[in-house]
Specification:
- By secondary structure, this protein is an alpha/beta fold.
- It has two domains: 309 residues, Aldolase class I (TIM Barrel); 92 residues, Golgi alpha-mannosidase II (Immunoglobulin-like, Sandwich), CATH 2.60.40.
- The chain is 31% helix and 21% strand.
- The chain is built from 14 helices and 16 strands.
- Strands 7-6-5-4-3-2-1-8 form an eight-stranded parallel beta sheet.
- The longest helix has 17 residues.
- The structure holds 2-acetamido-2-deoxy-beta-D-glucopyranose (NAG) (2 copies).
- One 2-acetamido-2-deoxy-beta-D-glucopyranose (NAG) binds next to loops.
- The site of one 2-acetamido-2-deoxy-beta-D-glucopyranose has 5 residues, from strand 14.
- Its EC number is 3.2.1.-.
- Belongs to the glycosyl hydrolase 27 family.
- Homodimer.
Length: 411
């Protein structure tokens, strides 16, 4: 009965004619932590101990997720990015974890992670070398897929440096088949469209990509500054038409990591960063020393009203509308529904201008349609502000570099 219910559910809510990777994973956007954003290669542990990618770091993230409420809020995948291996494969041509930094190997880390109910992610590149010149998977798809499966990997990020365009288009599909052949479901995170667009200067064919990957990068890496976050958000606003058409359960556009815990953002900027990412239904991947997450950032990360919008099972990417003064109104339709007819909606009003603005808008223009009205919640405070009819205007004051976010539940 339950299974039947689930089938009906997916049947009802998947966009028509969209094929997706049939591994049962990432039906909501993955949440977790990945090493690259803050630690980058992290292999100079003597010179830069504070940026060392090693076993101790990974276990510290696992412990933080397990002990500090992140796991309960949905943070699940802990992902080791580039630079984790020895320079040479072993005599069976298998990849070997760096013996100094990962002395007990990857199976040990996977077991530690799984024992706490969390999931383990790793990284490779589609070429013979990784982007940072460690051994890559070209010529070894079969062996590497089996190795990752034996280690207990649940998520694989596959980068796309150093190969020609034709190879990208073939190899991501091939590697995906090898992953499938292992029988171990792994979230397949592809950088395929990014390399097509920004290295080979062609238009990615998302229709061809979406059935083969659970998520994909389509834009530049984030770096540790507010500018980088703003540029990514503006890119998603501009590319909404292209990106939203191939986005939903099992297939996510990935705007790259959340830069919390790196002392890069003010409180209002961190609100914008996380609010827009949940409105997009983007993967939420932290990258930092978990002990450096500020109390305010943690409050946002564990705000279940916010997370619920991002983890909504419909997985609809919010649509951006340009208002006056460079203010953008993002609108997202989501669950719960009233009587299988009327959706809930979230509205995020983002101000990138340098001055505060008073904004008026009519939610009715952006889709709300229940004649019984809505109850309006401020997502950051969790307070129910008031009940509105279909015809009421909204009036909000948005400070510079800030966001006001409301969820409307049908009454
Ligand atoms: C492999 O692909 C088949 C067919 O698409 C699918 O039913 C199965 O769940 C996949 N298995 C894994 C481990 O991804
Ligand atoms: C909104 O309406 C509901 C249902 O009629 C009611 O229970 C609630 O108290 C109202 N909330 C406010 C803030 O007026």
């Amino acid at each position: 009965m339950l299974r039947f219910g689930l089938c009906v559910f997916f049947f009802l809510f998947l966009p028509n004619n969209v094929k997706l990777l049939d591994n049962g994973l990432a039906r909501t956007p993955p949440m977790g932590w990945m090493s690259w954003g803050y630690y980058m290669c992290g292999d100079k542990c003597k010179e830069k101990p504070e940026k060392c990618l090693d076993e101790k770091l990974i276990l510290s993230v696992v412990d933080a997720f397990y002990n500090e409420g992140y796991q309960e809020a949905g943070y699940e995948y802990i992902i080791i990015d580039d630079c984790w291996s020895e320079q040479k494969r072993d005599k069976n041509r298998r990849l070997v974890p760096d013996k100094k930094r990962f002395p007990r190997g990857m199976r040990f880390i996977a077991d530690y992670i799984h024992a706490r109910g969390l999931k383990f992610g790793m990284y490779t590149n589609i070429a013979a070398k990784t982007c940072m010149l460690y051994p890559g998977s070209r010529g070894y798809f079969d062996i590497d897929a089996k190795t990752f499966a034996e280690w207990g990997v649940d998520y694989l990020k596959v980068d796309g440096c150093f190969v020609e365009e034709d190879f990208l288009n073939i190899a991501y599909i091939k590697l995906g088949q090898h992953l499938n052949n292992t029988g171990r479901p792994m979230v397949y995170s592809c950088s395929w469209p990014y390399y097509i667009q920004y290295i080979h200067h062609k238009k990615p064919d998302y229709k061809a990509i979406a059935p083969h990957c659970n998520m994909w990068r389509n834009y530049h890496d984030v770096y540790l500054s507010w500018e980088a976050v703003k540029i990514i958000i503006q890119h998603y606003a501009e590319e909404y038409g292209v990106l939203s058409a191939h986005h939903g359960p099992g297939m996510w556009n990935d705007p790259d990591m959340i830069i919390f815990g790196t002392n890069s953002l003010t409180e209002s900027q961190s609100r914008v960063h996380l609010a827009v990412y949940v409105m997009l239904s983007a993967p939420i991947l932290l990258s930092c020393d978990m002990s450096k997450v500020t109390a305010y950032e943690k409050k946002l990360l564990l705000n279940l009203d916010l997370i619920a919008v991002g983890q909504d099972r419909l997985g609809i990417m919010a649509k951006p509308h340009s208002l006056e003064y460079g203010v953008t109104l993002w609108v997202k339709r989501h669950l719960p529904m009233k009587g299988d007819i009327y959706h809930s909606y979230s509205f995020a009003i983002v101000n990138f201008d340098s001055e505060q603005h008073l904004i008026h808008f009519f939610p009715k223009v952006y889709g709300i349609d229940s004649a019984d009205g809505y109850t309006v919640m401020d997502v950051f405070s969790g307070e129910f502000l008031r009940n509105v009819t279909l015809h009421d205007p909204m009036q909000v004051t948005v400070p510079p570099d800030d966001v006001i976010m409301y969820t409307f539940f049908p009454l």
